[in-house]
Amino acid sequence: xxxxxxxxxxxxxxSWVLDERQKRLVVAAEAKTLGRGGITKIxxxxxxxxxxxxxxxxxxxxxxxxxxxxxSGKTRRIGGxxxxxxxxxxxxxxxxxxxxxxxTRGDPESPLL
Length: 113
Fold this sequence. Notes:
This protein is mainly alpha-helical. Helices cover 59% and strands 0% of the residues. α1 crosses α3, α2 crosses α3 and α2 crosses α4 (50-61).
């Protein structure tokens, strides 16, 4: 059994319990141990994008305080992740009210609005 198959088996055994950051670090470590072409091989067997593996390798190299802060249970850096819909589209509530208003029955102040 070659190293790529072993890496695939290890990943399949533990991936169910890992969060996205931990998965990134595990596959990055596996890719580094494989050497040249390891990123592509691991990306193919795990389905994780090569850019994600590159990010994991950078995180493994950079042991700064920013990465240590992530060890406190957070998966993403502050400000990471999807923005709230009201931040990206502030007029959405008005638009929704315009859609619902023509079909509102009875008291327009009703909580059913």
